[in-house]
Automatic annotation (TrEMBL):
GO terms for molecular function: 5-formyltetrahydrofolate cyclo-ligase activity; ATP binding; metal ion binding. Pfam families: 5-FTHF_cyc-lig (PF01812). InterPro entries: FTHF_cligase, FTHF_cligase-like_sf, NagB/RpiA_transferase-like. The keyword Hydrolase does not apply. Belongs to the 5-formyltetrahydrofolate cyclo-ligase family. Its EC number is 6.3.3.2. This is 5-formyltetrahydrofolate cyclo-ligase. It catalyses: (6S)-5-formyl-5,6,7,8-tetrahydrofolate + ATP = (6R)-5,10-methenyltetrahydrofolate + ADP + phosphate. It comes from Ruminococcus callidus ATCC 27760. Keywords: ATP-binding, Ligase, Magnesium, Metal-binding, Nucleotide-binding.
């Protein structure tokens, strides 16, 4: 267990270093390709509920995905942090501009207004969740920021299709994991969308 924690800390440091070193134009070009690849996928087309993070500046930008999903008539929800390291997803209103529905919340993350309705994944809606992280592998491993918000949420909905969202420099051979870490079903990058469980 101690070895796993140390390995995670070392990998977090390495991935943060890579984030700082990535040229802005390279990041922007990769984000555009990632967004297009995801929106053209059958997984996106088939889902009726999309649970998606609102990106921090260092994460792959997701606002384009959110806007397109709303325009496509999907049920779109973004997370808000709650006490005890839990999250609630609030449904966005397609009639209101995206930025008008977001406020600066926990950890400087843009969060939905509390007045927006809270929704949960429903199996009949073929729900899909785009998941952020610092590092991913192709076996479903994900290195988050260490607080466990997504692990707790994902554990409650085993039927939810869980797809990591990252640029390829943040893929690694093997992410160290612990029993409470939730495995993902796939990974979306600028070069591919791979789903190995779903």
């Amino acid at each position: 267990m101690i070895e796993q924690i140390a390995a995670k800390q070392a990998l977090r440091q390495e991935m943060r270093r890579r984030r700082k070193a990535m040229p802005p134009e390279e990041k922007a070009a990769g984000e555009q390709r990632l967004c297009r690849r995801f929106l053209e996928s059958s997984y996106y087309r088939n889902c009726r509920q999309l649970f998606c993070f609102v990106a921090l500046p260092q994460e792959p930008e997701t606002r384009g995905i959110l806007r397109q999903a709303l325009a496509d008539g999907k049920i779109v929800a973004v997370p808000r942090c709650l006490p005890e390291r839990r999250m609630a997803f609030h449904q966005l209103n397609r009639e209101v501009p995206l930025e008008q529905q977001l406020l600066s919340g926990s950890f400087g993350v843009a969060e939905p207004q509390e007045t927006l309705p809270v929704i949960t994944p429903q199996p009949e809606q073929v729900p899909l969740c785009l998941v952020p992280g610092l590092a991913f592998d192709r076996k479903g491993g994900r290195l988050g920021y260490g607080a466990g918000y997504y692990d707790r949420f994902l554990a409650a909905y085993p039927f939810l299709l869980k797809i990591g969202c990252a640029l390829t420099p943040f893929l690694t051979d093997c992410v160290p994991t612990e029993p409470t870490d939730q495995r993902l079903d796939g990974i979306a990058t600028e070069s591919s969308l791979e789903v190995w469980n779903g």
